[in-house]
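As the work plan foresaw, the team has encoded backbone shapes as discrete tokens. One protein thus recorded appears below exactly as we store it.

:::
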Amino acid sequence: MCKTNWVDKALIEVRPGRIRSGLISKGRLVELIVDDLNFPSLVGNIYQGRIEKVVHSLNAFFVDIGIERSGFLPMTEVVMDSEKSTFGKNDIGLLCEGDKIIVQVKKDPIEFKGPKLTTNLTLISPTVILKTGENNVKISRRIHCDETRLLLKSMIDGIANPDEGFIARTAAAKAPEQVIKSDITMLREEYLEILNKSQKARKPIKLLHCLGSVERVLRDLIPINIKKIIIDDAPAFLIAKRFVEKRAPALKDLLQCYKGTRPLFEDEKLIDDIEQAMSAEVKLPSGGSLIFSETPALIAIDVNTAGTSKGGHDRSSFETNLEAAAEIARQIRLRNLSGLFVIDFVSMKSQSNKDKVQRIFKKFVSSDSETVFVGGFTRFGLMEFTRRRGRPSLNSILSEVCEYCNGKGSSFTPITCGFRALDRLRVECKKQTSRGMELKTSKAIAKVLKGELKSALYSLEIELGKKISIIEDGSYCDEYFEIICRGS
């Protein structure tokens, strides 16, 4: 029997300028997507581009696609139409400045970088994906039933053209054969339309706009065995209804339009889940906790028992780690974290217990919408794994770097800041001929200068022969101060 991953319901909450979409399993939020409609994603859009610059040192091209910043196209992402094969490093000269080229956005622009592009186009339907730069058939890794995998591969192989590649999605496992064939026909028509538009284009233009937020959620995130889809906006509900009637009729009876007075996510009691996903610490039911530490190189996750020791240390450690494995899988998906991870589980002596924890963790991440590769335990007892980078992380969308600590997550103590202020006063006083100085600072620094550092302040006044007045300003943050000269 084929394994499936149950999701109780999907929520789509629409606000002017923002759409939040969430998946709920057993009453808890497992995935959240926040779309800023003022800055829509370009990923999936297909453009008629023009080679703007060939950069041999990068083995890549810059492509004008008709937007503010040129796109970046590595040579490894170039598939030539004539042979449907990716050319190597020495073939960069096959494309010249001014050449027309059809490209698709793989990654959105980031800061000063333009979007990352590919010529290997991907067109998506509810049951299958068409890959224009390939000529083989693949089956979703989430379809575990060998018999189903063989049947799907045989069927799609029988109707695929030599220059087409297909991927059977998870939904294909339970979809009727006619639905899959219908989706393939639709994708072929979509591709022909793109080619026709490209032939008529005289300048860089958009050939295909990716689906809107509501349709994309219905297409990409909702498993075939979802129980309920709730949308809190009437126009969005109509968009969803038209989409499922055309693309996924099985979902039609699952659509519900929410008419409650409270915000949808609040009514479903999910606000705490969202706030927890923004926190570095996550409490476990047993009393233990997880600590997430993000660095540019990797993400470290520390598992703490918080003193729980029921049934002995080894048993307690094992049970806490099992609990942590499930919650870590949920949190990385909810937070949409990616890259390299290390987990410092509670120490376990038994190799059998380590193997069980690893198997459980693999089981929970198997339902993730992004690819997760579990490398296992290192010689130092840390578990390594990676998660493919897709959308921006939840933290990067919902928060910004703190203007006071610049993202460090910590700040200098008031005493440290007090000593820094005294050092700066010493330097500035020796430059000035004024009779006195004023130090305008925060309440916290003023308090230590009048308390713990009172003697240090007095010693500085004796050394400089000047009176130093401390002025509190409630608008100043703890690390900031201003030096003002008085008279001459």
Observations:
- The chain has four domains: 9-40+214-267, 46-208, 278-398, 414-486.
- Residues 278-398 form one domain.
- Confidence is low (pLDDT under 50) at residues 82-90.
- The chain is about 30% helix and 25% strand.
